[in-house]
Amino acid sequence: MLANSGPISHHLLPMNAVVEEDGMLSVGGVRLDYLAHTFGTPLFVYDEGHLRNRCREALSAWGTGVAYASKAFMCKAMARLAYDEGMRIDVASGGEMHVAVSAGVPPSRLIFHGNNKSEQELLRAFEYGVGSIVVDSFDELRRIAKIAPQFIDRRASGQALMLRINPGIEAHTHEFVKTGQVDSKFGLSISSIMEAVRAINGMEGVFLSGMHSHIGSQIFNVHHFEEEIRMLVDLADDIMAIPKEGGYDEFELCVGGGLGVAYLSDERAPSITEWAETVKAVITPSRLHITAEPGRAIVATAGMTIYSVGTVKDIPGVRTYLSVDGGMSDNPRPVLYGSGYEAFIAREVNAERSRPVRVVGKHCESGDILIADARLPEDVSVDDLLVVPVTGAYGYSMASNYNKVPRPPVVFVSSGDARLVIRGESLDDMCRLDVL
Ligand code: LLP
Q: Can you tell me which atom of ligand 1 is nearest the CA of 219?
C-alpha cells in the first residue's frame, strides 16, 4: 500500500518532463495528450535527452569500454543512440547482435554474452569480429575451439575472449534477477578459472582480454560491487602470473550491470557516478581496465507508458478496478517479480492522489495487474490518459502478444519533436508468422 497520497514524485519522471500551465505533462517538449492523439495508446515514450544524458554519465563515470546492456531495451534507434554516445553494446543473443549490426553499430563495439550460445551464434560472432565474446562454460570453449581456427587469417590478434566468473556473491534482490550466487546457471566457478585460462592460452586464433561477472539486477547497495571487484582483481593477479607469450597489454575487468533505479516515490537509487566511484575506490590504478554494462540505469527512468483508461469498476466495500488498454503484455514485471510501480493522470500531474484503485490490464486473467494498490486523483475517469513512469527498462523488451494484443509503438521525444522508433503492431501482424 502506498504510504502517501501526494502527487507523483518528480524524480520518477524523465529529466525533460515539464508540467504545462494547464497541468498536462510534456516530455522533451511534446505534450502527452498530443502524443496519445498522434500515436494512440498504449504508447512507450522515451525522453531522448535523458537517454543520452545517462549514456554520457556512464561514459564519464566508467570511462571508455562501458557498455549498454541492450536486453533492457533494444531497437535500432536505441543501439544507434548508445553507440553514438560512445558506449559499447552488450548483446546476449544472435537476435540482439543482429539488431545492433543492422543499426550500423560496428561489430568491434559489441560484447557477446549468453550462457548457452549456439554454434551458429558463435560462428556469426567470429564472422563479424565482435569486440569480445564472454565465455560462460567449458562447452562453449569447446565450440569456440572448433570455430576459431577458420578465422586465424582474418585477424592478426585473434578473437578477444573474456571469462564470465560466477562470483559466489548474493546480492539482495529478487530471486529471478540475482545471478551471482553459487547456485546459478551463469559463469564459471572461481575454482575452474585457471583451467579455462590455460585452455584459452593454448588455443589458436583467440586471446584472453579480460574477465566479467554480474551479481544481479536492481541493486541499491553499491557496496555489493566492492566484494565483486576485489574477487576479480585477485583472479586477475593470479592469471597474470601465468607466463604467456606476449603478456597482457591491458586486461579488462567488467563488473556487469545491476545498478537499481527508483520505481516508487519513496525510493532513491545511487547514481551511475556513485556506483563507479565506489567500485573504483577499491582498487589502485594499473593495467586493469575496469568497466561495467548497465542496462536499467540507462533506460528505465527515460521511459514511460501512456495508457487510456477504459473502465472504472467500483465493487462497493471491496475495491475499484481501473482497466487500461494494455497490461501484462507490455509490462510483465509486476506479474513476474511483483514489481511496484506508480501511476498518475497526464492532465493533472501535480494532483493529490487520494483515490485507491487497482490498475489492471485488458488480458484474460485475474493476475493481469499493473499496480495492485495505486493511488490516483479522485476525478480519474474513463478516457483519461494514465501514465506509468519508469517503464523504460524490461518493459518493451519483455513484451508479448498474449491474447494477440499488438505490441505498442515506441517514440523518442526531443526538442519538441516525436520520432517513431518502433511502429505499433497491426492486427495483420498478429498472424504474420502463421502458416495456413
Ligand atoms: N550484464 C549482464 C551479464 C546481465 O545479465 C544483465 C542483466 C545486465 C548486464 C544488465 O543489468 P541491469 O543493469 O539492467 O540491471 N528482467 C529483469 C532484469 C533481468 C536482468 C538480466 N540481466 C527485470 O525486469 O527486472
A: 15
